[in-house]
Specification:
This is Acyl-protein synthetase, LuxE. This protein has about 375 residues and is an alpha/beta fold. It is built from 10 helices and 16 strands. It has 2 domains: about 160 residues, Luciferase, Domain 3 (Luciferase, domain 3, Roll), CATH 2.30.38; about 170 residues, 3-Layer(aba) Sandwich (Rossmann fold). It starts with a helix and ends with a helix.
Length: about 375
């Protein structure tokens, strides 16, 4: 077994471990064995990515980070998320069977999409399934699932399409299906599925992009329809609105979902993820908003000043940095453009960077581009 294969095997074994009771700690303690194992794997990954990607190595050196100086996962320089749009961040060379997930974002220069290269999906899929089982299924067995997003045959470069297809295939019962296709949402068919769940008392799960749920609620309102789905039914939304629907404040959004579908807000769960990561964050329902997001034991987060990369003082808001061990082929540590604040059990997601924070994110991108010779 070569070094990369051994590293991947150890990451898979770490993900497969039973999660500790205390997850997603702030930047602090590394006292437990899980934390020590996380740190050791993060440093092995840093060594692999530092030696395999010259542009990343140069960036790290500009930040004063070398294989000798990086002693903890918190020392690993965070790559700004827009770097995925500017260059290929990969350790392994291209191969014909790799999967490439692409962002939907644009820049002033035209359509520029960030790309995340996956030589194999073993790590991504285990990361998704282990986390999804615990945070969304919560011990429930296979259930009928309605997917409010196109399938991955229509959107092969969408990480969300793959995520939702995996949810349906692994955790959905045989009647599970997609209700969004090339011609939009199949509302009549979806209503029939929801009626069947009501009639039989079978818990039902609806999953999709947040904007799809806005369209669904508007369509149900126009039809004068409401549902009272059986106990144990649940909803998962993700991805925001991205100009695909009207913006709905969180309180109105989750109140509307609960009212229209008869699902308690404690089972209206939001997933926070991104193309540039291989692991997702969840809340424990949206009875209150904003909800607290947290991740599994193979991802850690920090709150930083984007201009300096340093942690913000306790109690202050900062830009989220995530260190994801499932990102074995790109870079583990990502500087997002999302504002966060620590909360009991995880963090609050407070929107996109603006003002000085947005400027700091832009400076970080410029610094990376200079290091990469772009």
């Amino acid at each position: 077994m070569d070094k990369v294969a051994a590293l991947v095997a150890d990451i898979l074994a770490f993900i497969a471990m039973e999660p500790p009771q205390e997850e997603q700690q702030p930047e602090g303690g590394e006292g437990g064995s899980i934390d020590a194992q996380f740190n050791a794997l993060a440093l092995r990954l840093f060594t692999h990515q530092y030696t395999s990607n010259p542009a990343y190595r140069t960036f790290c050196q500009r930040r004063g980070a070398t294989l000798r100086s990086v002693q903890r996962w918190t020392d690993i320089p965070a790559v700004p998320i827009d770097a995925f749009k500017a260059m290929e961040l990969r350790c392994e060379p291209p191969r014909p069977d790799e999967r490439v997930f692409m962002t939907s974002g644009t820049t002033r220069g035209g359509e520029v999409r960030g790309r995340h290269f996956h030589p194999q999906l073993d790590v991504y899929d285990m990361s998704m399934a282990r986390n999804f089982q615990r945070r969304f299924m919560r011990g429930a067995g296979p259930m009928p699932m309605g997917i409010l997003f196109p399938d991955e045959h229509l959107m092969p470069n969408s990480s969300l399409a793959h995520y939702l297809a995996l949810a349906k295939d692994v955790f959905g019962s045989p009647v599970s299906r997609h209700f969004v296709g090339t011609h939009g949402m199949h509302v009549v068919s979806l209503c029939s599925a929801l009626e069947a769940a009501e009639r039989t008392g079978t818990p039902y799960a609806l999953l999709g992009a947040s904007y799809s749920f806005v369209h669904l609620m508007e369509s149900l309102h126009q039809r004068g329809r409401r549902f009272k789905l059986p106990p144990g039914s649940r909803v998962l939304d993700t991805g925001g609105y991205k100009g695909q629907s009207r913006e709905v404040p969180p309180e109105e959004f989750y109140a509307g979902l609960s009212y229209m579908l008869g699902v308690p807000r404690e089972l209206c769960i939001n997933m926070y993820g991104m193309t540039e990561l291989s692991t997702q964050f969840y809340d424990d329902g949206n009875a209150r908003v904003p909800s607290v997001k947290s991740g599994p034991h193979w991802i850690r987060s920090r709150l930083v000043d984007p201009a300096t990369g340093r942690d913000v003082p306790p109690g202050e808001r900062g830009i989220l940095v995530h260190c994801d061990l499932a990102n074995y082929n790109s870079v583990t540590t990502i500087l997002t453009e999302d504002v966060g604040e620590w909360a009991d059990g995880g963090f609050l997601l407070l929107g996109r960077a603006e003002g000085a924070q947005a400027k700091g994110c832009s400076m970080a991108v410029q610094d990376f581009m200079r290091a990469a010779g772009k």
